[in-house]
Amino acid sequence: MAGILIQFLVFYWIGTIPWLAVILVLVFGFLSHGILDPIAAKFTYHRPDPKWDDKFWLGYHIGMYTFTLFIVMFFIQYWLGMLASIIVDLFDWGARALKRFKFLHLDWYTEPYVHNIVNKPLLYCLKGIKGDVYSKSRVIPEIIIDVVLLACCVFFIYF
Ligand SMILES: [Zn+2]
After folding, report:
1. How far, in Å, CA of 99 to CA of 45, rounded?
2. What integer pLDDT is reported at residue 17 of this predicted model?
3. pLDDT at residue 150, as a whole number
4. Are the C-beta atoms of residues 148 and 1 closer than 8 Å to each other?
5. How far is the CA of 41 from the centre of ligand 1 (A)?
6. Taking the domains of the chain in order of start, what are their residue ranges?
7. What residues are neighbours of ligand 1 (ion), with CB under 5 Å?
8. Using the 8-state DSSP alphabet, how is residue 78 labeled?
9. What's the CA-to-centroid distance between 93 and ligand 1, angstroms?
10. Distance from residue 11's CA to the centre of ligand 1 (Å)
11. What is the pLDDT of residue 24?
12. CA distances from residue 6 to 15, 96, 100, 154 in whole angstroms, order as listed
């Protein structure tokens, strides 16, 4: 949804220069990851390991993936912004997934290098805040953030 907002706003302000708008969507989308990932780490339920036997984890993730699917379908014309906002994940988690194909020679990719760079400034600013990605009550801030972002998307784009 951050990517949707970025694409909408960039094209709203500078859509008359499409090539520049595309570059700015990519840059701002990329940078937005450095804001939302640290916020997720500090304020949301974001455990890194899947818990398939936990009904709460499973239900929450099914709900979130369903919600995400609806957002993607509903705002599909903002695919560039959505894609730009997950470039960081595509690099780091993509490299991790592709490492098992030895012919790609990705053995050197031992850390989420792009995350380490783009998330660093805000994580540094938030270092006094102790996050708890295992706390289930942290779904509340995440849902609030999602509702606010969705309200902004609907409000900006349709009103
Ligand atoms: Zn990420």
Report:
1. 28
2. 98
3. 97
4. no
5. 10
6. 2-158
7. 37, 89
8. G
9. 8
10. 25
11. 98
12. 12, 28, 34, 13
If you measure from the C-alpha of residue 16 to the centroid of ligand 1, how many angstroms do you get, rounded to a whole number? 31
- 18 neighbors 12 (Cβ within 8 angstroms): no
Give distance in angstroms: CA of 104 to centre of ligand 1.
Answer: 22
For residue 87, what pLDDT is reported?
Answer: 96
| Sign of the CA dihedral running 84, 137, 120, 109 | negative
The half-sphere exposure of 117 on its side-chain side, counting CA atoms within 13 A, is: 8
Regarding pTM above 0.85, the answer is yes
CB 84 within 8 A of CB 25: yes
Return the HEC string of 15-64.
Answer: CCCHHHHHHHHHHHHHHHHHHHHHHHHHHCCCCCCCCCCCHHHHHHHHHH
Rounded average pLDDT per 10-residue block, the chain, 159 residues: 98 97 98 96 93 96 97 97 97 92 91 96 96 95 96 95
Buried b (16+ CB within 10 A) or exposed e, 125-136: eeeeeebeeeee
CB–CB of 30/44 below 8 Å?
no
Alpha carbon of 89 to ligand 1 centroid (Å):
5
Asked if 35 and 119 count as a contact pair (C-beta separation under 8 A), the reply is: no
